Predict the structure.
Amino acid sequence: DHRPRRRGSHPHGIDDVAKDENTIRGNLSDNPQERFIDLPLPENQIMATYVWIDGTGERLRYKDRTLDYIPLKPKGKFTLMMENWDKKVMETMLSKITYTKSAMYLPPYDYYPRNLENFFQAECKLRPKRNINVFDENLKDLPIISYDGFGTQQAIQTDSDLYLCPRAIYRNPFRNGNHLLVMCDTYDKNLDPTPTNHRVKCADAYKKCHEDEPWFGIEQEYFFLNKSDSRPLGWPKGGFPRRSDQYYCGIGSDKFAGRDIVLAHYRCCLFAGIPVYGTNAEIGPSQWEYQVGPSVGLHAGDDVWMARFVMEMLASEYGVQVTWDPKPFEAWEGSGAHTNFSTKQMRAENGIEHIEKAIYKLRNVHEKHIEAYDPHGGKDNERRLIGTHQTERICTFSAGVAERFCSIRIPRIVAEQKRGFFEDRRPASNVDPYRAIDALMRTCLLNEY
Ligand code: ADP
Ligand code: MN
Ligand code: MN
Ligand code: MN
Ligand code: MN
């Protein structure tokens, strides 16, 4: 049975909530949000949406928090307001901020991910008289906040407080104003990363190889499903669509379903500051793709997760489900998250030599990569990487130019120009991108995978 796992009934016999349009809409009007979205808020108050990965390692959660200052100024310029910090601390912090097109990365957390408390204590030495509590929410920075890890499959019931640590901020496309989306990672009571927090390891790898300027571009494939029966949008009831070579990048109302959401997602991501490279309709009807990147190092992971969050939010607004399952239907193309990778050296003249070296290294650690390329240690990809539908078999490693039945593809243009990037076709659509790019950096750049 290859129906997405989310289907199925509640143990007590209650089915999924809010299935029909009226329940979703609350019977208000066609577009209830429009009536409230422009209501003015008290000056300097903004809503921050904290987003994190739950205990499954593949689902996202969020909670909102009101801030009484604006870390994000209008016109997309990011600034930090840190009035409570003395000048020296502020300078140290500001010097560590990396600005990118997409987001501002908050330095204290990114630079000292494993040891937040020590970092703050170290900084406090600069002004020993005042003891700053890491969890002091009056810090004019994005606060670390707590949540109930029992409700997210991350903690036992009797000891469930976990911490959310802000990592990257984006503009919130669902709210007018300076409101934020905040990508977070998760920590237990000892400030150790939770088991599904793969960002910490990835941050460590990126820190060690950032001078190689690794870039990642991830192609995210997925299907839209009806909420009512969890079958793909537009597919015949209980059956399958006719096989056709007309769907991929196709036009015509019989060739695709869900384009409104695709267009909205594209625009929302660009507004948010997520670098979407492009989108296209995929080989199966109702299957689509968007590409994120190229993003630099670790931040590719933040961008990919936040793009998934935006898609989930939009799809639910339209009353549609998204499945990130890599093989929802046995007889149809699966969904991947092809990960395109380059370094400064690969992009430079004759960079093809560095690409070939990287592929040579990848060949030796194929199994380790397969383990990291889906959230179930390779089990999901067992259904997808079967040597058909433009995939290589899971047990085989192969590389080729302009060829799509292999593990690694060198795009034709890269082979011709002898410089550029390569594509790792193995990661599944539900991969944790932090794990995939961590594996690539460690194997190809750090020789330690
Ligand atoms: P495909 O032909 O495999 O479908 P796409 O056009 O869908 O390719 O995706 C190309 C991907 O390559 C995008 O995600 C883009 O961000 C990424 N990319 C482009 N240039 C680079 C580069 N120099 N380094 C890493 N990724 C890159
Ligand atoms: Mn509560
Ligand atoms: Mn593609
Ligand atoms: Mn594709
Ligand atoms: Mn591809």
